[in-house]
């Protein structure tokens, strides 16, 4: 009796692109999404592949979160403008990874209610975000050496304009990631371990041996003028730093400084968690210098208006990386993150 053959889990995503064809292709990944009135419907995820002369292979992503707009603009603009004749290497550009969330202007995907950046490495038999995440992990990250993911802080927060990277054990990878962040050229670069980082795109890239940085270039649910300027410059800076296009990275900052400041959030002490549900009044903007024990904000109890507001204090000193601005918060929500100068070796 023969053993039943169980098919390996294959992606259900399909496309008409050739990852190796020279020149520029602009198209879509098709994620099947059966619905009432559309049995064979697909969600079309924008993607461009640009193959030039031999060189590095790099992934640029935006719109992993739909309420973060700078990457959606910058990655799409680069895909339209880039001349493959001027490129050494391969670029894969995905300006709106979670397209349904981008069209809704929301962090969570409206199809399955998931955060795409908590779905890696995905599942080909899972929900929309899980199916797409599995394709990105198995078919995109396996074709690049470097991943640059453009985020902002969404509707709830605003970030000091920054790249971010994880603590990694390998000294050579750490050094090359710092260099990548320096070429990117944001005012700040933050090394962190995060609250829930194992299922992000950056973590999946690292598991694939791909050099990865992410970024936070705005927030409060709007397009940051300076964040977008940094994002657009950064994509070309990264290519220049890798020798993919001519020129040297321009890392001059708006305050006249010449380079990126390396910072870190070593553990969870830098995170402020709301002690109760309420209306949060922040006292500082992103980038502000703060001290341990300093008042960070007040939690107001609107329905119990005679009750005194509850103070929230910083647990560590440094500079505000993430400033809250959502108004209503729930107990356990992060209402601020503090970064301090990088002290690691
Ligand atoms: Zn994001």
Report on the structure:
By secondary structure, this protein is an alpha+beta fold. The protein has helices at 70-81, 99-104, 128-140, 171-184, 201-207, 225-241; strands spanning 14-15, 23-32, 42-51, 53-61, 88-94, 146-151, 157-159, 162-166, 188-192, 211-216, 261-265, 271-273, 278-282, 289-290, 295-300, 310-313, 318-324, 328-329, 334-341. The strands form 2 sheets. It has a 15-stranded mixed sheet that branches. It has a 4-stranded antiparallel sheet with strand order 16-15-13-18, with no helix packed on it. It is globular. The model has no long low-confidence stretch (mean pLDDT 95). Bound molecules: zinc ion. Zinc ion binds next to loops. Zinc ion is lined by residues 64-65, 68, 151, 154.
């Amino acid at each position: 009796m023969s053993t039943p053959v169980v098919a390996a889990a294959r992606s259900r995503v399909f496309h008409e692109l050739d990852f190796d064809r020279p020149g520029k292709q602009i198209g879509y990944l098709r994620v099947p999404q059966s619905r009432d009135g559309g049995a064979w419907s697909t969600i079309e995820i924008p993607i461009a592949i640009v193959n030039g002369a031999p060189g590095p292979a790099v992934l640029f992503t935006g719109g992993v979160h739909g309420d973060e707009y700078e990457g959606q603009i910058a990655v799409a603009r680069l895909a339209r403008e880039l001349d493959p004749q001027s490129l050494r290497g391969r670029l894969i550009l995905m300006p709106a990874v979670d397209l349904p969330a981008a069209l809704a202007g929301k962090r969570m995907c409206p199809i399955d209610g998931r955060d795409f950046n908590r779905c890696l490495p995905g599942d080909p038999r899972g929900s929309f975000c899980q199916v797409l995440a599995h394709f990105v992990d198995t078919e995109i990250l396996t074709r690049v050496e470097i991943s640059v993911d453009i985020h902002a802080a969404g509707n709830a927060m605003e970030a000091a304009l920054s790249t971010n990277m994880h603590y990694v054990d390998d000294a050579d990878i750490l050094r090359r990631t710092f260099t990548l962040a320096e070429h990117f050229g944001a005012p700040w670069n933050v090394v962190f371990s995060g609250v829930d980082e194992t299922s992000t795109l950056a973590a999946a890239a690292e598991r694939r041996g791909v050099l990865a940085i992410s970024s936070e270039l705005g927030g409060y649910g709007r397009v940051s003028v300076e964040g977008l300027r940094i994002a657009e410059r950064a994509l070309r800076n990264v290519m220049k730093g890798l020798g993919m296009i001519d020129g040297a990275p321009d890392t001059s900052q708006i305050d006249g400084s010449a380079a990126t400041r390396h910072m870190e959030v070593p553990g969870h002490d830098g995170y402020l968690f709301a002690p109760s549900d309420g209306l949060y009044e922040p006292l500082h903007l992103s980038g502000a210098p703060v001290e341990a024990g300093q008042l960070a904000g007040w939690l107001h109890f609107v329905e119990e208006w005679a009750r005194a507001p509850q103070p929230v204090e910083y647990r560590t000193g440094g500079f505000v990386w993430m400033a809250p601005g959502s108004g209503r918060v729930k107990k356990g929500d992060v209402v601020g993150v503090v970064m301090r100068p990088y002290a690691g070796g």
